[in-house]
């Protein structure tokens, strides 16, 4: 582990989630995708497992397979759900999932693969009638403050708007069944605990720790200041060839 990852996990250890989201997002996505109660669901890049209970609730007679590339997050998810026979948790690469799955849920992580590339990769992991639900950073207005534009140009230069996301969905051979803007409470579920942790660890005891704290504080501040112009868009998509 590099010094930076040590600092990152000192800040993020045992936080409930690693990006915005709330249980009603999962319920909405499952309803939009008409996910059956017996569904085989994959939580791709599950982080600490914040969405697992809601995914299980969406398919109470089904099974949830959750994976993340970071063992620290998988361990945290296991601590909550290890005993549940309806869930399988493992360390893994979401680019290599095989399925078949009725729903692939991916909260705030598809951009690591690229929207179109990731959806194409997942096509063969979808069961007939299956769907992908993913949340993605998104511009909601054309009027963008320079500070927010500069921040996202550094963090995620490919960030686009709802039409741009839909264009990538179609380029991958899928169509969009529905979209939903994540609510402020979904963001508070992420930034509230993170900001409290930042306060408790400040000032950082190493330059690396201070940098990680400064970055997290700035990210939350950018969202709080400019949240009308950007956020996360949750999309439910299905292959176009079925
Ligand atoms: C912004 S976090 C979101 C985590 C979780 N879905 C949540 O909402 O709390 C992004 C996650 O993607 C994971 N990740 C990135 N690339 C991955 C890959 N190729 N395979 C599996 N996990 C990956 C990271 O480890 C991290 O947990």
Describe the structure.
The chain is an alpha/beta fold and 242 residues long. The chain has a single domain, classed as Rossmann fold (3-Layer(aba) Sandwich). It contains nine helices and eight strands. Strands 1, 2, 3, 4, 5, 6, 7 and 8 form an eight-stranded mixed β-sheet that branches. Strand 1, helix 3 and strand 2 form a beta-alpha-beta unit. Helix 8 packs antiparallel against helix 9. It is globular, with a radius of gyration of 18 Å. S-adenosylmethionine is lined by residues 17-19, 21, 45-47, 50, 67-70, 73, 93-95, 107-109, 112. This is Class I SAM-dependent methyltransferase. Residues 41-130 form the Methyltransferase domain. Pfam families: Methyltransf_25. Keywords: Methyltransferase, Transferase.
What is this structure, in a nutshell?
With 242 residues, this protein is an alpha/beta fold. The protein has helices at residues 3-12, 23-32, 52-58, 71-81, 115-122, 146-155, 162-171, 184-201, 207-226, and strands at residues 40-44, 63-68, 87-91, 101-107, 126-139, 160-161, 174-181, 230-239.
Please supply descriptive tags for the structure shown above.
242 residues; Rossmann fold; eight-stranded mixed β-sheet; Class I SAM-dependent methyltransferase; methyltransferase activity; binds S-adenosylmethionine; alpha/beta; transferase; Methyltransf_25; single chain
């Amino acid at each position: 582990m590099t010094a930076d990852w040590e600092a990152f996990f000192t800040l993020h250890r045992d936080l409930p989630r690693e990006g915005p989201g709330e249980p009603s997002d999962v319920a909405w996505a499952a309803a939009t995708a008409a996910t059956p109660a017996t569904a085989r669901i994959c939580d791709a890049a599950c982080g600490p497992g914040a969405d697992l209970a809601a995914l299980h609730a969406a398919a109470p007679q089904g099974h949830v397979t959750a994976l993340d590339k970071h063992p620290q997050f998988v361990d945290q998810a296991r601590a909550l759900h290890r005993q549940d026979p309806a869930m399988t948790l493992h360390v893994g690469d979401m680019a290599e999932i095989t399925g078949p799955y009725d729903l692939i849920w991916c909260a705030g992580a598809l951009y690591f693969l690229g929207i179109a590339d990731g959806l194409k990769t997942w096509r063969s992991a979808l069961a007939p009638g299956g769907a992908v639900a993913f949340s993605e950073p998104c511009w909601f207005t054309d009027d963008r403050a320079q500070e927010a534009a500069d921040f996202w140009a550094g963090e995620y230069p490919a960030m686009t708007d709802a039409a741009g996301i839909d264009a990538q969905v179609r380029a991958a051979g899928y169509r969009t069944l529905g979209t939903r803007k994540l609510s402020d409470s979904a963001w508070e579920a992420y930034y509230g605990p993170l900001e409290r942790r930042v306060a408790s660890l400040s000032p950082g005891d190493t330059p690396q720790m201070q940098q990680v704290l400064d970055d997290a504080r700035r990210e939350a501040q950018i969202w709080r200041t400019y949240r009308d112009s950007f956020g996360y868009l949750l999309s439910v998509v299905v292959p176009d060839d079925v």
